[in-house]
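Entry 14. Structure prediction run on the chain below.
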Amino acid sequence: MNTRRDFLAKSGLGAIGLMCMPTTMHFGLLKPEYGVQLYSFREEMAKDAKGTLEKIAGIGIKKIESARSAKGLYYGLSPEEMQATCKSLGMQLFSGHVALDKDFETTMEHAVRSGQEYVICSSMPSEGQTVDNYKLVAEQFNKAGEACKKLGLKFGYHNHEYEFEVDKDQVLYDILLEETDPDLVHMELDLGWVVMANKNPLDYFERFPGRFPLWHLKDMDKNTKENTEFGKGILNIVEVIENQKRSGVEHIFIEQEEYASTPLESMKHNMDFLRKLE
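Output returned:
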């Protein structure tokens, strides 16, 4: 089975995001407006972007994060078409996964045209699981953050499992947090990969409060090391939701890379699971 990491290695660019939806207090929990990472519907988006967005809106999801695809940043749509399609469905494109590469200037231009806010680098721009490389990458991230800020965008980074490897007794992901400017580099914490790396998200909320304005809410099967529907894996979803304020999260995107049946049925399950927490 192809993983997202395999897919990203073969594809081109991505998309981006805007504005903050309100959260309310309900039965002691902050109730966020959950969104979806469109990689969850990658095949469907490639075949029929507008029709797939309509189905996603139909199950109550209004916040969108895009992912780069073989058809470009917006699945064959122009930035303006993507924005207009989302608006017509009562949805909003807040964030998108992109590559920090030679085409990054064009990526930022498209982000501005789409009305998005966040430009999220979806994987490490250079290889090397060393402290030195991660310090160099942190410099790149700060520069990208400066370039985005000038255009009214926000730059960020999405982790996987490998960033939590250790070199010279230092966790590499911690290097990124320590060496980047919080005003320029906004972390999107993929909670599924954090727990797969045997780390506790709450530890990061405690040590780096306010550094994670975006999340990927993703449950993981410890045995298969694949995505599973909420409540079937090892992520303590209730616990992280209860501690979301400390993390600084503004946007929570559900991501489902593998499915028990279909992407839409898995997403319905996930939404039902979250509604039962309210």
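The longest strand covers residues 92-98.
Filed with the rest of this week's runs.
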